[in-house]
Known about the structure:
By secondary structure, the chain is an alpha/beta fold. Helix content is 52%, strand content 12%. Strands 10-11-12-7-13-14 form a six-stranded mixed β-sheet, with helices on both faces. The site of adenosine-5'-diphosphate has 11 residues, from strand 6 and helix 15.
Amino acid sequence: MLTKRRYLIEILTAAALIAAPFVLPLLGFAPNTVNRILVWGLFGLGFDILFGFTGLLSFGQSAFYGTGGFVAAYLLTRAGFPNVILALIIGMIAAAATGYLIGLIALRRTGIYFAMITVAIAEVFFFVEFNPLSDFTGGENGLPGVPTPSIDLGFAALHFTTGWSLYQFIAFCYFLGVVIALRIVRSPVGAIFSAIRDNPLRATAVGHNIHGYKLTAFVIAAAYAGFAGGLLGVLQAFMPPDAFMFDTSGQLVMQTAIGGRGTLFGPLVGAAVWLSLQDFLQAALGLGAAWKLVLGVVFVLLVCFLRRGIIGGLVDLYGLLTGQRTAKEPEESEPQPEIGSEIAAAPMPAPHRPDDRPSGPILQAKGLTKRYGGLLANSDIDFTVNHGELRGIIGPNGAGKSTFFKMLTCEVHPTSGSITFEGRDITGMNVTDVCQLGLTKSYQVNQLFAGLTVRENLVIAALSGLRGKFKLDLFRSIESIPGLAERVEHTLALVNLTRRTDTPVAELAYGEKRRLEIGLALATSPSLLLLDEPLAGMSPRERVETVKLLKSISQGRTMIIIDHDMDALFELAERVTVLQEGRVLVEGTPEEIKNNSTVQEAYLGGVHGVLAA
Ligand code: ADP
């Protein structure tokens, strides 16, 4: 939704912010409450980029809120710094720099461990503010006397003092924050953030340096927090010590969950609910501290019944009313065109045409061995594949085929042996760098970006080839990347998913998901493509279709395919390697393999003639 209607969201936000001082008083909102909601909303914009878009749940945002807030407040109250806006910006930079350093440590872990590290960081910052740094932060007294901003336009001076006057300044900051956040989530970096949230393993495998992008999201969130922290001091004319408290982090997480994560406006809506409930329950109903009990019940109900928060619920309702999101369509619901029929219309050529194709080995493995404890998954494998070849690999379950592929793509490192790809020793490299060099695989078990559409999935894979593994083009729109649309269209046609372009992955039929799995690998434009059991779990009809698809994508490409379907593999491959108990048993043309008695012995326990039948 965010990417389709360019500028509509910005215009609506501006209109709402302009209308607010006229409308909200009629609903009983005091200007101070609205200003507090906006400060939380601004704080939450960065947090939503981190949590909602990148999937990193941090409980440590108070550390950056406090850092930005106290740096700005210290400059303005104790250091005699005259310019409020500049002080806010310096506070923001200090918070971002702190976020960078903290991120370097916290992002070494994922999931619950990451969250726990951020909790610890918040506690450490709170302690530091009260003890070693109390001379600068005022300790439990905080820093009083933070001034409000004024802007000298030369011919006139604008003073933003309190109430609706200060609202103008805070609303402008919030609007700017929204514009920047929207640019970020619509940029290639924003797309990769969503990929990391949905499937970090695959985001890495299609060639993105996800550590760099996670750190970017962390720094962005810290910068927003720092600026919002500074604004809190301005708003209250006092920088309170509780900005650093863990409660602040917890409240932000809850407000984002209430409003809706991954929506940018969720934290604002969550803060509006939180603060108005607080005002209403405490003041109007006189519940005192018990208001949190009611809030707790509201929170549980909202999280149980509106799993995507208030905004997510409204978006779903809108979709339901307008019929935009339909239930899962079965694959058979519309006739699919013949495999390959759309390829003619696709503009992008295959990586190598027969006449310009390089010759000789593209991949060589020597003495490749992988030991898991006492188990030899692969043992002393020598293996060579030439440019343009389509190689098949067969072997019984447990023969070591998947381990072999994982070593070739550098997902796991060999215990001994070496791998050379296009003349370069890639042993010990990581999966991202190897993908950037042009070697990638499709997975035996689908590894898709489940929350995104078919097109968005392919965009993420195609971006790595076009931008490299890390680039900070935060303010660039995805559409402006040369060659991206063509590459995505071409891949859609290759895997026969053009008609499902805007379908969310969750609504695809299994066969379509398998094709998208292959499409993800293809969209990185590999010079060597590895396919791990592309036919796994398919119905006979889907198998026939997919074999056709594999034939068509093999034109001008070098591919290695593992599969149990020997008929299909013998039909596709020029040469076949048979693995058994982690070793190469034999290698040859499909005809040679079919008639090889050792293979029949090993593979089928001596039932001669079955392979050849
Ligand atoms: P295949 O793909 O041919 O079925 P695999 O490569 O998956 O075979 O596995 C080969 C052997 O290595 C099996 O005995 C498997 O249990 C073992 N193996 C694979 N991965 C691991 C791992 N991460 N840890 C321990 N053993 C493993």
